[in-house]
Amino acid sequence: MNVDETVxxxxxxxxxxxxxxxxxxSGAIQGPARDAVGRIxxxxxxxxxxxPCGQCAxxxxxxxxxxxxLTWVEPxxxxxxxxxxxxxxxxxxxxxxxxxGGWKACVIYAADRLNAQAANAFLKLLEEPPEKTLFLLLTxxxxxxxxxxxxxxxxxxxxxxxxxxxxxxxxRTLAIMKEAGGAGPVTAMALAERTARLLAEIKAQAAxxxxxETDSETVEEETNTLNxxxxxxxxxxxxxxxxxxxxWYRDVLMATVxxxxxxxxxxxxxxxxxxxxxxxxxxxARNNIGIAEHMNRLLERxxxxxxxxxxxxxxxR
Length: 317
Prior knowledge:
Elements: H1 3-16, E1 22-26, H2 32-45, H3 57-63, E2 70-73, H4 84-94, E3 104-109, H5 116-127, E4 133-139, H6 147-151, E5 154-157, H7 167-179, H8 185-212, H9 223-256, H10 270-279, H11 282-300, H12 305-315
Parallel strand pairs: 1-4, 1-5, 2-3, 3-4
């Protein structure tokens, strides 16, 4: 969901009294995900009747991270780790009475940097949190969080410009899909190679984004950590390519069984989708979806991209 949808989700939680006490906010931590957290804090601390107004003292203090009921925790500059000592200080603050008589909030920025001791200390607090406390774990690498922490939080994925596929990448993927299926092994291999080149460009873009989000003057990122963040960002983008392929074959199946054009996701490709549907039976159309899903599972298990792509393009009909 985008930033506005994320804020609307929290507004509903506040108004309905069903706010969870812990959320993993996943996305670009110097982009849309951080923006969403800022607006959530304004929503929480706004003094206006229609929050967030963005103008009152509560909203300004939230934006400046100066609100007395807000605790902001982030990795130490040298180690780039969130330590157990930081967690203990945060725990003391969160257990104090609210200054404003309302909510207390804690943002753990780059929460994937919690070391083992810090993560376990936070888990204990999360298991028995004080009343009217909200924990926002902001991260672009949720897979590195302690599973027991994730299981006690709600997951919110915040998308934005940094997460979106470029129109060029979408167009190139759909152009490949128009040629895929039943064209022989040589063509299948060529299409797999074209897809691999596209993915290489996407990975390079992911690396540029992550490096641009790194403050080189204050952050001394270890090579392994930086590479892990790049890999996580790339896999999110690659997943969108795979889902695009899956949605293409969903449209083909819909056309095969005679569904109306209005329900097709790729309205700009109706002629190609109808032509493909006319050449294959319903059983093949269903199998094509299964092949795309199998390719996705292989990639998620870190099977070689080349192997997964060649398998899919060689099997599609």
